[in-house]
Input
Amino acid sequence: MADAIEMLETIGRSASLRHASAEELTHILERELAPEALVAAVTQEDSSLLHAMLGSRLNQVPQVVQTPGREEEEPEPEDEEDPLTSVIPSRPK
Output
């Protein structure tokens, strides 16, 4: 697995390899005797094969963490008066 990680680092550092097509990258990896799982991940363009080889899981952060922070608004104090009685005068009985 260390070889696969080193190869991935090399691909990431090299602009020509990073932007190479899947076919070109497959030929290079086969020539360098890369692990079969890495070659299969590139050939099939399926990163899940790479995750399985490295024993990692996808880390999906919930979007609620990515929202900007906001302060809680304090509730306004309620008046004891009914708002309608201040607008509509009461009729004498």
